[in-house]
Amino acid sequence: MKKIISITLVIFSFFSCESDDFYDRSGTEVGTISFANLPDELVLGNSYQFDLSVDQISDCHSFNRFETEVVNENTIVVGAILNFNDNLSCESSDDVNIRTYDYEATTSGTITFRFLSDNTPGNQDFIEHEVTVIEP
Question: With a threshold of 0.85, does the pTM exceed it?
Answer without folding.
Answer: no
